Amino acid sequence: MKRISLLVCGAAIALPGMALANCPAITLTDMQGVAGGAHGQQYDLAEFEAAAGCTLEISENSAIGDFNARIRGNSALPPVAERVPADALVVVPYDSIGSYGGVLNTLANAPESGTADILSVRHVNLVRYADDLQTIVPNVAKSWSWNDDFTVLTVDLREGHKWSDGAPFTSADVIFWYDNIQMDTNVFESPKGYALVGGERMNLEADGPNRVIFNLPSPKPGLLAFFATTHVPPFLPKHFLGQFHPEVDANADANAQTLGFENGYEAIKAYYGNSDWTDTPTPMLSMPDRAGGLPRDAMPTIESHIYVKDTTENRVAVANPYFFMVDTAGNQLPYIPEIDEIYVSDTEVRILKLVNGEADYKSQALQLDAAPILLENQEGGNYTVDLRPQVAYSVFGFNFNHEDLEKRKVFGDLRFREAMSVAINRAELNEVAFLGLGQPLQYTGFSPLPSFVDDKWLSHKAEYDPASAAEMLDDIGMVDTDGDGFRELPNGDTLVLNLSFSSQKVSPAVVELVSKYWQDVGIKVGAKEVTSDEYRSAQSANKLDVVSWQMGQPIAAILGNGSRFVPPYGGYFSARVAMLWGEWVESAGASGVEPPEWSKQIMADIDAFQSAQVGSPVSVEIGNRLVATMTENLVFIGTVQAPGPIYHRNVLKNFPDYLAQSDEFRWAFPYRPQQWFLDE
What we know:
By secondary structure, the protein is α+β, with helices and mostly antiparallel strands. The chain has 21 helices and 29 strands. A hairpin with a 3-residue loop joins β14 (305-310) and β15.
């Protein structure tokens, strides 16, 4: 039976019989007496209507048709009530119901560098972390349930959910992502670690169009946390990419050749990439419409925005007309219908643009050393800079598998890594590069360190002791044989540590100081700033002596993705120090270089850790061993954990206080950026 609600002293009082035609436009600052949903800041549509005693009327941006016309290949739009799911996600705005319009102006370093915080503005996944960074809540998924031993995860999708081109989004899209992309060796030579459980594949099955069941070969309670903390969406548009997949469409190669690709798999790789990064340029943006082809700028999405322009200077995304979120007044989100992402490779130029108020939001690639000038110019630039804790922090790592065998021998010697660690004056580094706001600490693999692990690991080999560093280097046989003030390799060869770095993830001031500390103990360093793409390419080619990046993950992310504990100890977009060990792991020993026993122990332990119930005696035992092995072997050398700046223009409304500046929680993703709006 429907209900009628009366407003008494601002509160919605429900009476049996009928429902209000219009719902109270509640916000988190004014709930108007409406009870909160099961997930705090959001409701499923039926849940909201029951709580508020009303029927929500769905409305749209009056200009959405114009934006839809810019999505090449999209048809004319049906009414908005037919475009959002029957189980639409109702978002409670932070401060106020927003208004439509404007362009979110943003900055990135390059097409695949410094773009993650902007991706996070439109990003969706099955679930997400709420803004407390502790609670997992529904997102694309309506609900989920586990069996008793965490080997079966059942996920329910939203009835009537559609892709950005209007095609149904169903369980088939989740299974296609897994079976036909992740598990297809024509796309990925070997499965990604996150797609496996204990090294074995999952079995996904559909129970109707709106339910998908993940059958796991062993327990993995952290699988949901992986979905909440990854940029990898576990779904892809089967109706689009399937046209290029020979197991889905018998005409796959012909379909691809119509568009100028050699075969279907080449088309899939062009659209999706042979990486799992979802923010790469799309091939159709520069290709003309072709008769009989697929004239889309990008493959369909269920994110809040879709790309319609991509150049070497910028890219533009417009609102997805089929997006599944609405506010409490029934307005389909997002409020801001357009994103303009400008590429600026020079760090100083990016900072100047922020000082001048030329961007609306920025968090990634902002280092703490930029804070003074940004804070000094807040009032004049009409923006706000908040300093928030970072999960990750700057680390350095030596290439265990260097192609120069003499360097490989030294880098693999634990005494060398210990010497390089104690040579770093972290207290001074904190004062000079981090404004005295940071905490010196060692890299443990976890950030923050779980409460069940001894805090002693945070200071392991992190005390400043250059005399001890010099003694260890002497013991290795690294002495100055030519009198130039710098040590040679034990065989007499000249040693210069080539330290290429990207300012996207490490401050030049940090590199400069660490280089000085190492040179003070006789190790010559040649530091050079390069672009992120140059850094990653050199790393992939195994050409780096030293890697430098920000590393560290919360336990939630580690429970879902253990790649930081498996050679090469990171991915393409982070730091890797053991490329040949990683090749050995991926090839099951057929190629590459066999890692040492301590590395094998970590690999076994991370699988066991992910299968154990968090907090159980088994989990605690394995977690302690993981930290001990990772830290004692100094896979990476930690420096200082410090806050990071978060920038937004004051005209950007419904912008909350972040708990952290964190790529590990996907930047803006926990803060529901689809309800941001521009007040200008």
